[in-house]
Amino acid sequence: MQGTTDNIYVQMILGMSGALILVVSFILFSIRNQNRLLRQRQQFQQAEIAHQKELLGAVIQSQEAERKRIGQDLHDDVGTTLSGLRMLIEMFKPVDDKNQQYLNFVKSSKLTIDKIVKDVRHISHNLSPATLGYYGLAAAINEHSDIINQSGKLTINVENDADAVLENLPLASATALYRVLEELLNNTIKHSGASKADIQFNSAPGKLLIAYQDNGKGLSGSSSQLKKGMGMQNIESRLLNINATYDITTKPGEGFHIQINCPVI
Amino acid sequence: MLFFIYTTFIVPATVLIPIAYAFINYRGLTRAFKIILAFIIFSAVMNTIASVMARGYHMRTTGIYHIYTPFEFGFITAFFSEFYNKRIRNILYGLIAAFAVFCVLNTVFIESMMKMDSNARSVDAIILIIFCMLFFAKNNSDLDSRWADHASNWVVAGLLLYYGSSLFMFIFFDNLTRDDIMTYVIWTLNATILVIEYVLFAIGFHKCKAQQTISTSR
Questions:
Q1: How many interface pairs between A and B have CB atoms less than 8 angstroms apart?
Q2: Which domain CATH number covers A156?
Q3: A174 in the same domain as A256
Q4: Do A144 and A120 share a domain, yes or no?
Q5: ipTM
Q6: Per-residue DSSP letters for A4-36?
Q7: Which pLDDT tens digit goes with each residue over A15-34?
Q8: Residues A245 and A157 in one domain
Q9: A233 with A155, same domain?
Q10: A-chain residues near B169 (CB < 8 A)
């Protein structure tokens, strides 16, 4: 009888140990399997993000090319034709060139043509700033700031402490950053009620740092609410495309601040 | 003597580890985890009563198991029911009631209070093992985060480890009332698995920390 009881004990211990090993193995295999599936999915998602980024890059590139073409056409064709028209009006001499009606007509025509030429140049510049391609980001931003400063809508102060980095910045990155700053200035003028904006270019090892700040009314709401706006979405997609990151700090009544970190090779 | 200290003081004291973690993270606990916390506290109270009865008054404690088993099944099934829809939850509540009736019938007609409730505990363990397996089968298809980041995975792993390993012990439960060295070995093994279960519960409670808010930076 004692032998039978001992046998049951041994079987119980063996059974418990066996079950313990089985359960531990099951849990470990389960963890390994789930982590493997998770890794595969993450890899797939990363590949998909990379593909989306490529598509976004292609869209932005073709958009820029199209803007450049339209800008050049406007500047070269329409601008030249308008200048020609102005000259024609100037050259036209009627029988009575002292006629007051004729003099008024010439004056108002020339004024209108000058205004159209100025507007076309403005639109052409906005579509594709030639300065960006020839003299780089800092010069293009300075030029854009000067135009806004002259309009009296906003006082923009640009500080550049990253000359070396900006000189070697690829055109694609410079264009993206120019568009982002343009959008930020546009937002400041349209929505913030600010009187002053500061743009500061700095460099860190392997990075271009851009700080943008205005003294407007600031924004309330969470980061997801901020990102819902079309302008912010444009900024995000432009920065994503050049692998830049950003950090927004804003509160109602305390202005708007964005810090952009752009990697440079 | 060592066996006495280990099973009477050290192992019951380890129940404080998950309880402490549960109270530290109490704000982050979901209803399922509050049920598990209630179960652990109930277990600790019943263990203390059994220890006092056995060590202090040399009374037979087999009756305690007859009361403990249906409550244990109720708590753990209620925990699992939180992961399913209302229809399945109601079925599980019905199962809790049916199991309680089964335990009463088992005590009245098959295994008296003077014996261990081997049948009830074995059925209890088998059903809970099935629940654990179903939980993992359901959760394995969730690929939103790592296995270890799911607090409930740790709790269910603890339950599966304890009930899976102790099933053989529950089947031959009645032999464990004898006073010999082999009984001590088996009780020590069971107590050690219980400690592991409590540690896994504690990890589960630790993972229930309230979520941090997201800043505006990317």
A1: 87
A2: 3.30.565.10
A3: yes
A4: no
A5: 0.79
A6: HHHHHHHHHHHHHHHHHHHHHHHHHHHHHHHHH
A7: 888 889 999 999 999 888 88
A8: yes
A9: yes
A10: 12, 16
